[in-house]
Design brief:
mainly beta, six-stranded mixed beta sheet, 2 helices
Amino acid sequence: MYQLKTFRTGAWIVSSLILLAACRKKDTDLQELDNLVNFETTSQGIVPADQHIQIKLKLSRAVTQEVPLIINVTTQGLEYGVQFTTSPAIESGTITTSIPSGSNEAVVTVSKVPGAPFVGDEKLTMNIYSSGSPIIIGGTKEFTLSFAELIATTGTATMDGGGQFYTNKVFVDLSANRSTSVNRNTWDLGFYSGADYRVTLNSSLAMMAKQIDKNDLTQVTAVDTVGFGAEVAFSQTNPRSTQMPYIDHPSGDLTRTAIAEVAANAADNKVYIINRGLTPGATPATRGWKKIRVIRNSTGGYTLQHADIASATFQEINIAKDADYFFRYASFETGALTVEPPALKWDIAWTYFANSVNFGGGDVPYLYQDIIIQNRNVQVAKVAVVPGGVTFSSFNETNLAGLTFSTSQTTIGADWRAGGGPSSAPVAHTDRFYVVKDGEGNIYKLRFTGLTNAGGERGYPSYEMALVKEG
């Protein structure tokens, strides 16, 4: 039996004990809708520093049989095999590929030939020529790749959030008209690459952290965690303001993280008990608990010490700072890894998120779906659409004066959508849009157009954007 989800202030929220399947589209309903194949975006650029780029073709939903695709290819100022190659290969002006059974995408990789010269005006155009039954070619059937850094002027896209269970966190680079989807179950902690030594939790997995008054992992046992099961855990039905210190503040303020700044003196760094939260899925599973301690290492980075609560020993992971990124990451299972793109290669991200809400007694931790956050070098202003006022279409550079920009990572947050409760379908607001100034000074207007794919499945948000002023 499925419980109804809790409905609060327009947000359709999931607790650790609630199944999302209550609002699923029935398979029979989905079968009645066309399954379309489209390029993920209409255009992208491959910057001089990049050797490869992946071009994705997406279906409305996964298929139960392999589906062949034929893509026609034309070039401008390019010679195949001399300047670039593709996988699958181009033969007689076409690429033959397929979407595997159980998948909803095909990928074409374009690679530069090492040492090949480029002027910067070279282009490659792909056009979906045919698709196997029962797939129908959608409206975004043409894609252009520029062999130069692209400052996109307009664009529409649907993000791959992984469907109704919000499997992915999706990073979006507006100027490159590109998105990057990362499974949110692949990392635990983020490590700041700036001047300070700050550590963040994976806020997309309902993680919490509580400090204890010890600085030696081997001296921490289960006795030190008595009562933590209910205290250091999200609750959608009984959230408490006393839990706010156990999460990273939703604004992104690094002075308000659950884990204190890593001190230069190793002895000053305390042990934290980590609730690793919940896996994405129809029946979210607990990811377990860890005890951790973070110290600065001799190379200027971090050393993460971690172990299971009852372990008498611990493991270490070294994480280096990297000036090209705001954060590097670590997983307790796989070690140091890259999660988000470089600092100048993403502007906003869509994600499941550890937010806060005030029901009248102060802020409490609360889990939200469909949150939009912004990068640390990005500023965002909201524009309300009112009768007789500026519209998304009419907004231009002359309207920038007087806007109030914010650096809080949740400036957009959940403000862009509403509904999703038992009696209301989730929708994107049409009475507002946002102005986004990216890390390179480019200013875009951005509005969200939907939360679902063509089959009605949530977890595939869409947007429209246009360049207002180039940086």
